């Protein structure tokens, strides 16, 4: 089945004219038709538009265009419902945007199109990317393709589930505190958060602007490298994107990691770590050692404060960013006697409970009298957390940890307990606070039920090449990434 192919397998076959982009797109659409009633990864997709784009790609291939110039020519890629796609709905998993359609393409979408990708479909997410399970979506909860009584992770749960259920060849998500790596781990695919500034955020609806970053979900590490190369680079429309040259990431996947130094942070071996997750991560570390990497224990002493720091900074930024959804500029409006009443009615009806909680928390920590005690202090701790990583990276080339403390939990299990939900991100949050890069790759399964486990590799700022090389070498030596969720066929 063509929908099972990776980007590299598909583009090789397209280039040899063994398959067409139309057939491939059709096989993804058929898969959506077959499984998405159960998985519920997609909020919407436009089959006619997807097939028309596929025909355009087929004509370009017939005219002799090569994948060297356009590396994603004919490759279906779906995106999280938080990135602007021209003339398509943009809801951020929320009711407050109503029937809003985006008048322009996000930079990453422009780049995907320029590389020849077929951009189709909008993927479910927690409302405004706040959550770890997609249960905060205003529309429905996405299900884990490995077990439909469980959540796929979040907030990019739709992006992870669509790849794991082989409904799209690859997808994009966004990661503010773990929203790419955590769902990738729980669904058994590869998910990467690039270094802050690597990828333009223009056209990504902002949650916490100093933490948000867009990244790929793929079936293997090579595809992750390919997609990263396409979406990276400076963009004058996002002043936080950096003028750093974009390497040819896939060329760095040599399989040779001899002599690289990997750090194991002792603070990550916490009590709540599931024994099966720990065993898989231990085995992965042993495998990396066997491949010639040198493993040393390191310390990231401020780890304990990461979650508390994140849950001050992220809501503070969110409370400011979400002020624009007021019934005047975009989407839904609930009228009132005067403008103030109209704002209140619109926001009261349009935002879900988690978004309201974050706005209230964020407004509180920024208010006069509390700013110094909370927000300013959190910013200082953030600097210490970043310093921990920079110190560690003087001694090691990358850091290895579990991605999540447990495998996928049951739908409903944590939805009444925000604190428990927040703690599912303990291993992923620091990476965003520090602005470094991180990737999650499959490293095993729990026994019963069989659920994927993720290994997180954290890299230096703009150290994606080395991080990908390590991830790839591990992947080459193991077969976890080849296992398919039964529903995927
Ligand atoms: N789960 C975290 C939160 O709820 C991270 C979300 C994200 O990375 N977008 O904020």
Structural write-up:
By secondary structure, the chain is of the alpha/beta class. It has a domain of 252 residues: Alpha-Beta Complex (Amidase signature (AS) enzymes), CATH 3.90.1300.10. Helices cover 38% and strands 13% of the residues. The chain has an 11-stranded mixed sheet. Strand 7, helix 8 and strand 8 form a beta-alpha-beta unit. Helix 7 runs antiparallel to helix 15 and helix 9 packs across helix 11. The longest helix has 24 residues. The model has no long low-confidence stretch (mean pLDDT 97). The structure holds glutamine (GLN).
Mean pLDDT rating: 97
Number of helices: 15
What fraction of the residues are assigned to beta strands by DSSP?
5-15%
Residue stretches low in confidence (pLDDT < 50, at least 5 long) are none
Indicate the CATH topology of the domain at 2-253. Answer: Amidase signature (AS) enzymes
Give the termini separation: 9 Å
Gyration radius from CA atoms, angstroms? 21 Å
Question: In short, what is this structure?
Answer:
This protein is an alpha/beta fold. Helices cover 38% and strands 13% of the residues. It has a domain at 2-253: Amidase signature (AS) enzymes (Alpha-Beta Complex).
Describe the structure using short key phrases.
489 residues; binds glutamine
Question: Topology of this protein?
Answer:
Elements: H1 7-15, H2 21-39, E1 42-44, H3 47-62, E2 76-80, H4 107-114, E3 118-123, H5 157-164, E4 170-175, H6 181-187, E5 190-193, E6 213-218, H7 221-231, E7 261-265, H8 275-290, E8 294-298, H9 306-321, H10 339-350, H11 353-366, H12 372-395, E9 398-402, H13 418-422, H14 429-434, E10 437-445, E11 452-459, H15 464-477
Parallel strand pairs: 2-3, 2-4, 7-8, 7-9
Antiparallel strand pairs: 1-3, 4-6, 5-6, 5-10, 9-11, 10-11
Helix pairs in contact: 2-3, 5-6, 7-15, 9-11, 9-12
The structure holds glutamine.
The site of glutamine has 13 residues, from loops.
